[in-house]
């Protein structure tokens, strides 16, 4: 076995050891942070891939490739932490475009000749569209509403992403670009979520009461 092969084997073994140490340390941290409330559903808006590539003077598409690696890391951390559901804006947009375009076009053409007065009849409260009717027809009806929304690059706007579902979610907007996000940003977001958890629960109960009223 040559010196090069020995060196390669050494680095492989060292990387495996470091990875196991990192997993052990994450488990210790997650055990401590799990004493508080952990969000069951986290949504991500992955903002800043192009700006990251421009900032680092990288080639076209490099920012999105690095952003994809950041996404896989975030999903891994969420899985280890016990987060049961995650949403990414890319997935939501692609799914909506692919599955609903034909349906929307068909409904639009059928509605062109309808009498608007027949669509919303509010007399005696009959046929009035309620918030529960809207929720039943959302793409996200199969999952719970996000407990926390993380958008990178310091932006607080939602860009029309899950507007209805995030009405009582905690919004965390770190200043880093998406490819720069790491474990510590996620942990800090969860700590802030725990600090505001009682207020969020109260807000969610108020919204639920208004929907039922």
UniProtKB/TrEMBL annotation:
Gene3D superfamilies referenced in this protein's UniProt entry, alphabetically: Decaprenyl diphosphate synthase-like (3.40.1180.10)
Highest taxon above the source species: Eukaryota
Transmembrane segments: 24-46
Example GO BP: polyprenol biosynthetic process
PROSITE patterns for the chain: UPP_SYNTHASE
Alphabetically ordered keywords of this record: Membrane, Transferase, Transmembrane, Transmembrane helix
Pfam families per record: Prenyltransf
GO molecular function, one term: ditrans,polycis-polyprenyl diphosphate synthase [(2E,6E)-farnesyl diphosphate specific] activity
GO annotation, cellular component aspect: endoplasmic reticulum
Family: Belongs to the UPP synthase family.
Record's protein name: Dehydrodolichyl diphosphate synthase 6 isoform X2
Gene that encodes it: LOC111008089
């Amino acid at each position: 076995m040559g010196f090069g092969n020995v060196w390669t084997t050494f680095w492989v073994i060292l990387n495996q050891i470091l990875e196991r140490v990192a997993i052990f340390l994450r488990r210790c941290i997650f055990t401590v942070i799990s004493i508080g409330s952990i969000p069951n559903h986290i949504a991500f808006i992955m903002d800043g891939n192009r700006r990251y590539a421009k900032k680092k003077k990288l080639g076209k598409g490099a920012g999105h490739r690095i952003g994809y690696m950041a996404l896989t890391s975030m999903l891994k951390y969420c899985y280890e932490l016990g987060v049961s559901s995650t949403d990414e804006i890319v997935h939501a947009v692609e799914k909506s475009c692919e599955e609903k375009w034909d349906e929307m076009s068909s409904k639009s053409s059928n509605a062109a000749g309808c009498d608007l007065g027949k669509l919303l009849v509010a007399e005696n409260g009959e046929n009035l569209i309620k918030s529960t009717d809207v929720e039943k027809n959302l793409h996200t009806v199969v999952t719970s509403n996000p407990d926390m929304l993380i958008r990178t690059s310091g932006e607080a706007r939602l860009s029309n992403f899950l507007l209805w579902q995030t009405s009582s979610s905690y919004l965390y907007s770190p200043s880093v670009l998406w490819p720069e996000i790491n474990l510590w940003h996620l942990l800090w977001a969860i700590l802030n979520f725990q600090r505001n958890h009682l207020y969020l629960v109260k807000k969610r109960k108020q919204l639920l009461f208004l929907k039922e009223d």
